Amino acid sequence: MSYPVPEKKIYVTLSGLPLSFHLEWPFRKSTSGADFWFLHADIRLENSEGLHAPVAVNLSATVREVIPSLEPKDLEGPVINALRKEVDRRQLEFVRSGKLVPVQFSSRHYDFKRNQWVFGKASDEDMARLLARKIYWQTRLVGETVWVGDPAEALYVQTSTAHVLEVARKLQAEGLINLNGELATANPGLMQRAEEFATDMRAALEELEKKHAFERG
Q1: Has residue 1 got a pLDDT over 60?
Q2: Is the pTM of this model over 0.85?
Q3: Among 93, 173, 194, 206, which residue's CB has the most CB atoms within a 10 Å radius?
Q4: Is 55 exposed, middle or buried (0-12, 13-18, 19+ CB in 10 A)?
């Protein structure tokens, strides 16, 4: 079954930052002599005053050898999650204007033994918090039903879509959302937690900014 794709999809980090991604497909082969492919992207911090992080995603030759193609169908989810992890690790800074920052899209994110992407596991509690934030921010900023069965979300927390939906059903049991298949809609009980989610976002952004201010000296 296919699900409607909203004009803008919100992806939330585990720390609570709502992001959207503009990926400038396709990947291009580097002409600098180095053996890698690159994709320019812009990570937008939603609910902010134009803060974003322009990046160049550099795909290593090692990983290129094991992936089926360089097409979005094979790489969109992994690229988004690699960038989310960079934000989780506070490696990227959100600015109003800035230069492209290179991000290594390498074997760090790929398990060659199991032949799969790895972005780190999350507990059910963390997943529930992630889904609640995602549904809140998508509803508030875009105002559409939210596809919680998006494979990119399951990949981000290293689990199956079925498990993500199981966690979503717990949110439904708590009266926070309604589920129709893989689509969720927010209930008033979730939207009333606006201050909590905004506070989470501010705290995560402050921690990120503090790190980069320290590094600049």
Answers
A1: no
A2: yes
A3: 93
A4: buried
